[in-house]
Amino acid sequence: MNIIDLRSDTVTLPTKEMMDAIQNAKLGDDVLEDDFVVKKLEDETAKLSGKDAALFVPSGTMGNLISIMVHCPRGSEVILGDKSHTFKYEAGGISALGGIHSAQLSNNSDGTIDIDKIKTSIREDNVHFPKTACISLENSHNLCNGSPINIEYLSQVYNIAQENNLKVHTDGARIFNSAVALNLELKELTTYTDSITFCLSKGLSAPIGSMVCGTKEFIYHARRTRKILGGGMRQVGILASAGLISISKMTNQLKTDHLHLSQLANGLSQIKKIEINPTNYKTNILYFSIKNNPFSDEEFIQHMEKQGIRFFALSKNKFRLVTHSGISDKDIHFTLNVFNNILN
Ligand SMILES: Cc1ncc(COP(=O)(O)O)c(C=O)c1O
Fold this sequence. Notes:
- This protein is an alpha/beta fold.
- The chain folds into two domains: 4-10 and 252-343, Aspartate Aminotransferase, domain 1 (Alpha-Beta Complex); 14-249, 3-Layer(aba) Sandwich (Aspartate Aminotransferase, domain 2).
- The protein has helices at 16-24, 36-49, 60-71, 85-89, 93-96, 115-121, 151-163, 175-182, 186-189, 216-228, 237-249, 253-269, 297-306, 329-343, and strands at residues 4-5, 53-57, 77-81, 101-105, 132-138, 167-171, 195-199, 210-214, 274-275, 285-290, 309-310, 312-315, 318-322.
- The strands form three sheets. It has a seven-stranded mixed sheet with strand order 2-8-7-6-5-3-4, sandwiched between helices. A four-stranded antiparallel sheet has the order 9-10-13-12, with helices on one face. Strands 1-11 form a two-stranded parallel sheet.
- Strand 5, helix 7 (151-163) and strand 6 form a beta-alpha-beta unit.
- The longest helix has 17 residues, at 253-269.
- The structure holds pyridoxal-5'-phosphate (PLP).
- Pyridoxal-5'-phosphate binds next to helix 3.
């Protein structure tokens, strides 16, 4: 049976063009800095992001870890959201490996953190406190409805950071989704951050890999930190060749993914048993709950999978659907029919 996989945009497969590029890539040793496909990807990414330099890393998790480790000396503190991916889903790496303390401030449903909360959580210079070194934001915000974070808010946070001699890092795993939703260039969304990580392996369909961008000096330290973490890769032009296609061609796909998501959200909102506010969803991620669900979460997921629809429950009665290049108009139609049949 054909499965419509709405678990995540990480399930996207490389395109035919990517597979051809992988096959034909001219390889070198990237730890010795002579894999020119990787160099090209890093140069193109730096240009696109408006930053001086970029680094290819194996995953978004490692990109965030490297960035925060570079900004935050051991024993210092990073301010981040309590629903951020870095806090919830990166295995506590910043603390386990970086020795970095975190101040977890509550995220609003649009992924922002109240500006006043950020201001008051910056530590004064006192021997009892860790030193605040960095503010980390997530854009788009996965757990907060896939919300894109707008420039006005980003500039406010950046100004606070500048006034207090702090760095700003952005977990932009899906920054291109935000750029598309806000109708902005990537460069505009990276103006107010010192560093950014984004993923090639999600909506942009590359098999593996993420990019970290920042100043030349930041990337110099990031490269060393990547080595420390075991993330130096040798003939990795194989992957970078797919990444070049991600950044040059696959961003066009995201508009369609967002359209599919809004069709899903609107369709689900017509089903009485489903709780969802379709206006909350601006990118490729939505969440919904079920009123008086006759099934347990697990039963419901299994039941839907038997009908050909696969997705996750992220917490009790909080289900998530994610659209991506593997999902067609027909799949959206079929998915809504199945939900209707099962819940009506
Ligand atoms: C917002 C966000 N940041 C970071 C990551 C980590 O990316 P990776 O799975 O490549 O480590 C993810 C993964 O889903 C994510 O959703």
